Amino acid sequence: MSGSAVAKRYAKALFEVALEKNLLDQVEKDLQLIAETFSSTPELIEWLNHPATDTAKKKEFFSSVFTQVTELVKNLLFLLADRHRENIVAEISAEYKHLANEAKGMAEAIVTTAFPMTEEDKKELVETFQPIVGKTLQIKEVVDSDILGGVIVQVGDRLYDGSLRTKLTRFQERLKGTRIG
């Protein structure tokens, strides 16, 4: 079974228990903290994945470092340690966030622009796309000067590409197809 399929199963199980215990937001924050800690500390991942690292030591480490996380998330970490799957924490976190957002009627919009957006730009974007998506949008801004101008909005698996770069590419393709003569 692929890592993402396994991560989805763990995330779904965790989501169901968190929903039942009314801990959706806290569990999401805990998972994000752990995922960020893992991604910012490559030595930690190396140590966790090393065959000589004992499962008991991993659990002891998790208990001492992640003292502020809920018991639910701590138990997940222990289970992942038992099954040598600590490397899928980021995937579990992302999938859990998706499930929690769905439950709350929210969606994350990844907005790519050539320049940083103003608060007014963000407000206008939310007002434009919320009716299309039918959910409350949370904006995650990405600045990429390669798009030249315009905006690319990704909500889930939907992509709205209004970048200048794409428009120029389409125009170039149309010009190639036009015969002069």
Beta-strand proportion? 15-25%
Tell me the distance between the termini.
58 Å
How many helices does DSSP assign? 8
Shape: elongated
Question: What's the β-strand tally?
Answer: 4
Q: Return the average pLDDT rounded to an integer.
A: 91
How many strands, which pairing sense, and closed or not: the largest β-sheet?
4 strands, mixed
Total of domains: 2
CATH superfamily of the largest domain: N-terminal domain of the delta subunit of the F1F0-ATP synthase
Structural class: alpha+beta
Helix content: 55-70%
Named CATH topology of the largest domain: Peroxidase, domain 1
Q: Write the H/E string, N to C.
A: HHHHHHEHEEEH
* Quaternary structure of the protein: single chain
CATH architecture of the largest domain: Orthogonal Bundle
CATH class value of the largest domain: Mainly Alpha
The low-confidence parts are: none
Radius of gyration: 21 Å
With strands numbered from the N-terminus, the spatial order across the biggest sheet is 2-1-3-4
GO cellular component, one term: plasma membrane
Keywords: ATP synthesis, Cell membrane, CF(1), Hydrogen ion transport, Ion transport, Membrane, Transport
GO molecular function, one term: proton-transporting ATP synthase activity, rotational mechanism
Family: Belongs to the ATPase delta chain family.
